[in-house]
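This entry is listed below:
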Amino acid sequence: MSVLDNFESWKDFLGDKLHNAQDQGLTQQAISELAYEVGEYLAKNVDAENDQEAVLRELWNVASNDERHAIANMMVKLVKNEGNSIQ
């Protein structure tokens, strides 16, 4: 089963990656930029595996550059308390 198959698994996966980035000393700005780049990659290259991902992809595709940064920042906030390393 892929982490993309289930939205909760996807959030846990992202939460783990966020905590790893924080543990390695990445700044909030660097994390936000990485989240934006991941969003860009997913929107262009990965098919949505569930309804939530489909909605996020549609929102991303109609958003301006500033709005895409806002979506990326909201995803970071959404997964902040997810994963195995809750802080």
